[in-house]
């Protein structure tokens, strides 16, 4: 059973930085993508950044140049370095694994990021 556990959220002032981490347990026998999504109340969950199985990275326009996604070699740990945070980055951030061959998504429980003075 695949499980994802996020950590690193919290309260930060505008202009500050946070680093989110996601640890994956459980084996996956197919190529998969890993990513970060975020959601605020009343809105749909949106992609923040992801790493595809071929190591291509995608970023939402709103975070380009400020956020950096990275992973370790066994694809067990996914990180998101967030710099120059703004109040509009406030959301619950979710780690995601997408196994396209199975049409399956796995999600973590989410970690709250609040940007406020």
Task: Describe the structure using short key phrases.
seven-stranded mixed sheet; 52% strand; 11 strands; 117 residues; four-stranded antiparallel sheet; mainly beta
Q: What do you see in this structure?
A:
This protein is mostly beta strands and 117 residues long. It has strands at residues 3-7, 10-12, 18-25, 33-39, 46-51, 57-59, 67-71, 77-82, 91-99, 104-107, 111-115. The strands form 2 sheets. Strands 2, 4, 5, 6, 9, 10 and 11 form a 7-stranded mixed β-sheet that branches. A hairpin with a 5-residue loop joins β5 and β6 (57-59). The termini are far apart. 27% of the residues are buried. The mean pLDDT is 96.
Please describe the topology of this protein:
Layout: E1 3-7, E2 10-12, E3 18-25, E4 33-39, E5 46-51, E6 57-59, E7 67-71, E8 77-82, E9 91-99, E10 104-107, E11 111-115
Parallel strand pairs: 2-11
Antiparallel strand pairs: 1-3, 3-8, 4-5, 4-9, 5-6, 7-8, 9-10, 9-11
